[in-house]
Amino acid sequence: MSRLSQLALVLTFIAAFGAPAPTCGRENETPVLLITIDTLRADRLGCYGARQVRTPAMDALAAQGVRFERALSHVPLTPPSHAVILTGTYPMYTGVREFTSGALPQGVGVIAEAFQRHGYDTAAFVSSAALESSWGFSRGFQLYDDYFNAKQANTGNPQAIERRAEETVRRLLTWLHSRPATGGAGGERPFFVWLHLYDPHYPYDPPEPFRSRYAGRLYDGEIAYVDHQLARLFQDLRQRGLYNRSLIVLLSDHGESLGEHGEDEHGFFIYDSTLHVPLIFKLPSGLVAAPRVIRRPVGLIDVAPTLLALLHLVDPLSRQFQGISLAPELLGKAEPPPRPVYSETFYPHDSFGWSELRGISTDRFKYIQAPRPELYDLRGDPQETHNLCDELPSVAAGLRSQLERLEKVYAAAPRAIRTPLPAETVDKLRSLGYVAYSAPAAIASGEPLADPKDKLQVFQQVVRAQALNEARRPEESNRLLATLVSREPHLFVIPFLQAENFSQLHRWYEAEQSYRACLRLNPHFERALMGLARAYLAEGEPEKARPLLELVVREFPRDIFALYALGRVAQREGNHEQAYRYLLQAAEAMPYIPSFQEELGIALVDLARFQEALGPLLRASQLGQEDARLEHYLGTALANLGRFQEAVQCYQKALKLEPKLAAARLSLAFAYLNLHEPDNARREFQAFCQQSPAQCSRYRKSFE
Ligand SMILES: [Zn+2]
Question: How many angstroms is it from 253 CA to the middle of ligand 1?
């Protein structure tokens, strides 16, 4: 290509996309890769001393860069911890503390927005529905790849709501390879990419050969597998000359307890088993710093401020930061004064009504504020097994007042307005194994809240009962719950899960009683209101279901399934206009749910709006919906538009799916009549008469 035509091409680019964003110096050309590996304990990496897992790619990254020996998560739950990492603010600031606490409030900035303002291409590739975009994490990302197959997600199959590292890395590389080689000014546009890998999260299910190689310790196998995929990514970056030039940050959102302190996974306690995570910075080739290890404790809240500082990006986002930049220390220039690291979990409180836990870690001690507080000397007792609260009361008191001060300073959050999550997002979290239900705001009779330490067994049994329900083993689930009822009379989630189990067994009367028992403990619990409505519908009492559904729609406007259910109730009552209005709202809010499209189309057929009905009916079919009713209604719409040949095909398909669908048989007979094929018409009509002799005489005249 000649020079002139190259110039013309560049000019065309500028004309098409506008002038390139101003850049403020060479630093801004540094590609940035933020890698968060979910549920990764620091002590499982070779560079953190692990001997039993092979992690050469991550170890090499640490060997070339700076490794933080004692990096701590502030909250051992996936969405709240990522909120901290991406915003540089504490959970008490954003209000993102737990699964049911709502999305990132409007007005809270995400690090990608800062990069975008500085001319970066931004993209995120996440591997779990736990981080889908409704949390608000997608702000500033030009591409937020959280695509999970919606139809499969409805089945509760965990494979459908997470994806393996291999696929996520492949999607990242495809994006990277497809970027235009140059930006508007002729230079390469830098990128900021966030890669989230989910494999070490439960269930532990590594592919071969890691499954065999790590038989009996599959959690380790997942980590080795993730490392293998990272090696593939880093190799690709090297081949493209990007690896050395890039700033790469690798960390985890939280660890995994693996039975320590009696906890299997994470989220319930705040011991180091779930707080201590890897944190590695590989600096770009332009920044000279000797590889080093920093031993003082730091928190993940410092990651976002450090990224901007290392690249000298001056951005308004920094006004919101509650963390500090670690850049001087990373570059070996200065050691900041020691800062205690805050941690919390509100999971026991918000989902169960027990006490929350809040803690503070220094380079020596860890204090946990709880109904029975805890103090550990981490130097002699890194496993946190010997509570020193009684032996060192003044140390405990000092840390407690530091904790209270820190909370007061950072909680002032005028912008932290609760933004509720869509019900389906919370549903997905449940299918990932969390008990994510909102406990009632006021717990019975002002009694002091229970210490999670005393509720561990109950918690584990509730998790197990929910897992059995998800696995469609309702009787086993109920047997387990029966052992808990008398011990935990205030725990609303027990009658709720019992009701869900009875629903699965179609024992509707018992389901109804249990939902009522749950609602007495937690009157505004959306899922119980919906469940009770469902039980009434199943018992053929739509008039009782309707006010409950209307209440849900009023109080939880994001509960799209309540709209859908109201639409179905109206349909059954023959109120087609009302059915259409509800179903339209549901289908517009969640256009990818096939049954919403199907019912909307059917409502339009019922209203004799045949042309309009075709759109949603065909969309339902494209989304994979396969049922006789859909085909029958599609045929009816087409027949009423005079498209009899196509209608015949639909009716035939309906009958193939459900040979006993007499209505489709009759419709097919009439379509043949309209096509002037009397023999076919008579044959189908006779088949209809055999199926439903009572109806036969009504239509006989047309076929004589
Ligand atoms: Zn996580």
Answer: 5
